[in-house]
């Protein structure tokens, strides 16, 4: 057993270069109890592996797999371990077995019997008893005369359920209890898994996620998921792989320069591919050529393999051309096989499948030459040879390469059956070819062509084609074609696609190097076209993966552009970590988000230096979590805004304490609209400390005017270092109180509750704490606007109203409210027809030139136009921005939030009591703002809520 498992198969074994498992084995992150067994196709879950270990799942070490835990006291019989392709399931089972065989672990187990479904498939037609099956695979047990396992602690490992071709029928298979009674292998396994056979045995089944539900949930006691490597584990992998420290260091720093590569290395098989590719690239000193997209990575891999073949087996020099006529021919045959089998959904092939595609298995080159690296030969016990590609993604890549090659050399579109042959190249344009590929992949119910499509589109890029020079003798499509394909994909995204399909379309844009990818994702999420409620954790991970690995670097990450929710924040955490500045204000965040952000702050690899968390319900408990992150020596945070986060003295004290541990980074801290109380003294003391970098502290007892507030207004201490220290003290403005008080009354969110009932606050949408009741200024109302319902409703009517002439009255069909805003305000209204909501300076013209008067058409006003026909359009100074939002007709309620000092004006759609962000204006407001409404369709109306 030791001998069998001490080497790991990596495709190079046959080249006489075995890899010792113990030397390369790197700890993997295994999450416990990751939910139900699901139906998804595994390829679409590849990106899920980029999920970080820092999420809330519990991890489990392999040595504890069968140990009862605090949550589960009963013994564990069957463990199912899921994980996407290449994530390390097989290697994990091998390591487990090797540790056992070497006496290092699991010594309570008397016998470990590791099986793979690949081997068992070959025995499909044979009959065995359980004892015979064990004797067959482990003849030592027969030689030792062991014919009964009931009295031993036995572990059966079944690796690769996804590859199982045995008909496991858990409902119809007859019960068998006798381990000495013969039956088909499928029935044996079914009885073993159901616990009819050897109930005292333990079972460990590994599988890719898509195949997990072949086994009924009640036969499985625990589900675990291999998540691959986290960041430190990635580095450890390269250090183990390259014993030469300098080489390992170079490798790691190169991987870190490419964000996408670094992310892909969550998956061990990518680490291996990367190591292979980089080893070669570093030798050739082409340091600028690091692969960035998936397609590029696989092209490099292929080129490296061809080169290795040339050098190792054909006696060539490294500088020789990598592609000989034979290797080109072989690539063609392998591509054909890959595509043919992919269409059928096959991952494992038989000799006849190879012959069909013109691959002569007797020709040594198939399994002793370059293709050993790509193509793996498995030998079943009965000499039946089965073959598969070293990784499913390699099969998908070769299939795409084949389809691409066929099209550019002969004009044949292999994807669309009905248009099989075109004698002349020009009968189908490249654009049509790629469009047909997109359409076909979208039609596949299980997404089996998704990754294939990504590769195919990636191969359409000239840059990628030139990497394959020598294999591709002709190059195809132009950048014009690529642009047309991008346009086509964007049209598809705007149709009603499922989340899975949309995500794959984003991946495709990424492979096509399209710069508007991030915007597309933002639009889909913020408009509700891609509903955040329906996204599964794996789909969120996929989105985060695309965003982080996209070419666009995130200088500023604005959560509102995706979804103003805690869920979105938690799911897009890797993107935040990769950004320099994160705008998370008004996003309904709570303590939970702080916990996650704290891990980002304390992470060595985080790029974040500016964080705006204002107007979230974080409270002291959340801020304490943040303070834990701030304390970390790795935290580089320079600007932190926690304005309006319901923080009291306790929270502020924790911030002060964090800053005294790590004082040298934070420059600006905004604690305005909170209750820092006495803790302000601690922060002020810090300001006097020469070790602190803090030079801007903003706070203010803005709410102290509120009734029943027990906290007396404390005068701020002014800094003693006026040159270095700048304190902005926000004075209580009368207008602020006026606007705030009704709002507080409305949402029952008075701050005096803060000491008595913190929990009551948590459910309140934070914006609404700033609700204000608008009062229309009757002197401004146009004469064709009728006020009703106690001046809460305004309608554009035919009949001229008998309002007196007034210099403030608009000639246009619009009006202003009475009171100017200077602090933070929030209001909602219902609209009908075509209505503009606006804020403007008092000076806006009332009469004369239309542009000077109309909301949004001049520099004095900002507006949002709401219409059933055209959706929402933001306008300022005559510049319009059309906002896509899923059906403006579904909800006619709109909310406006303005933070005058911060210079932000946000518009939201209100839908079932949640706010869907439409648009935010960031500017500097120089004067008080007056809310107003304009009407551009006869009969339109507005009701103030
Ligand atoms: N823990 C590990 N340490 C080092 N390398 C690893 C580890 N796990 C996996 N690898 C590398 O990744 C490759 C793929 O791993 P493995 O075959 O175990 O994946 P898998 O999850 O079983 O995938 P599949 O579902 O395709 O069978 C291995 O050949 C090895 O190179």
TrEMBL record:
Residues 77-211 form the NACHT domain. The keyword ATP-binding applies. SMART domains: FISNA, LRR_RI, PRY, SPRY. One of its GO terms (molecular function) is ATP binding. It comes from the Eukaryota. Gene3D superfamilies: 2.60.120.920, P-loop containing nucleotide triphosphate hydrolases, Ribonuclease Inhibitor. SUPFAM superfamilies: Concanavalin A-like lectins/glucanases, RNI-like. InterPro entries: B30.2/SPRY, B30.2/SPRY_sf, Butyrophylin_SPRY, ConA-like_dom_sf, Leu-rich_rpt, LRR_dom_sf, NACHT-assoc, NACHT_NTPase. Keywords: ATP-binding, Cytoplasm, Leucine-rich repeat, Nucleotide-binding, Repeat. GO terms for cellular component: cytoplasm. Residues 754-945 form the B30.2/SPRY domain. It is found in: Cytoplasm. This is B30.2/SPRY domain-containing protein. It comes from Oryzias latipes. The lineage of its organism: Eukaryota, Metazoa, Chordata, Craniata, Vertebrata.
